């Protein structure tokens, strides 16, 4: 039961960490890289919680590890709430000049909502110390999980068939009700917005059958997109993220060649040479993987792409979007009754 509770809390925390207002505040105060480390470490920890739940019954050390994780998760939640409150306060302050009534709303965001005064929340020694303390504790928990021999969950290990088809075709004339979604993402896909990374990741998140893949195909096959990107690749990932097979599928898509490589390192060297300084679009369709180490390995040859390169991920899980460090997470809603029946 402890594992279920901790998993739920960590999932909520990862969702909070991709909040637009919170990350805007974090970037303005220079702590965004620190919060990204939190998200990565929490994702690494989430991946072993099932194993920890089973082992803590007989192993006292694992039980203590889970308890420490639970306590730290609540501490993180408190800090993120403080930051979210400060982000709201600043947002309302910015609106005050345009709308005098905002000052009345501001009165209802009391100082007691945060442990730090509004004007020194980021600069105060107490907050800085708390952030550093949490960063250290998270890092220690990651190290301890390795010492305890906790293993990554393989919930779908019985599924051996990999789907790596290059099927990106779509009959746009038969698609109704996604024009607004496409337009919303096109601007982000083709925009030249500043980003810390050369490759920006966009995740389309929604339940199965809602139209994530269809929307990705509409974007992928748009003529403006074809003209904008020098290279494009579509890979259906499905149940298990096999780094070698997916890397090979990307290589085949961008080169048109079916080559065999002695090992993954040689494959990645060849892929880097092809992608280097090229603006590319990669679609990873139907991603389930929540293991950050696999994503870290897969993305290594992608980082050589030219600024403006994009990776579109379709997934059912907000946790997947978090693990993959998505700069843009787009929740896809259901179609209206009229469009669904068209």
From TrEMBL:
<dbReference type="InterPro" id="IPR027417">
    <property type="entry name" value="P-loop_NTPase"/>
</dbReference>
<dbReference type="GO" id="GO:0006952">
    <property type="term" value="P:defense response"/>
</dbReference>
<keyword id="KW-0547">Nucleotide-binding</keyword>
<dbReference type="InterPro" id="IPR041118">
    <property type="entry name" value="Rx_N"/>
</dbReference>
<dbReference type="InterPro" id="IPR002182">
    <property type="entry name" value="NB-ARC"/>
</dbReference>
<keyword id="KW-0677">Repeat</keyword>
<feature type="domain" description="Disease resistance N-terminal">
    <location>
        <begin position="5"/>
        <end position="97"/>
    </location>
</feature>
<dbReference type="GO" id="GO:0005524">
    <property type="term" value="F:ATP binding"/>
</dbReference>
<keyword id="KW-0611">Plant defense</keyword>
<dbReference type="Pfam" id="PF18052">
    <property type="entry name" value="Rx_N"/>
</dbReference>
<dbReference type="Pfam" id="PF00931">
    <property type="entry name" value="NB-ARC"/>
</dbReference>
<protein>
    <recommendedName>
        <fullName>Disease resistance RPP13-like protein 1</fullName>
    </recommendedName>
</protein>
<feature type="domain" description="NB-ARC">
    <location>
        <begin position="179"/>
        <end position="341"/>
    </location>
</feature>
<dbReference type="GO" id="GO:0043531">
    <property type="term" value="F:ADP binding"/>
</dbReference>
<keyword id="KW-0067">ATP-binding</keyword>
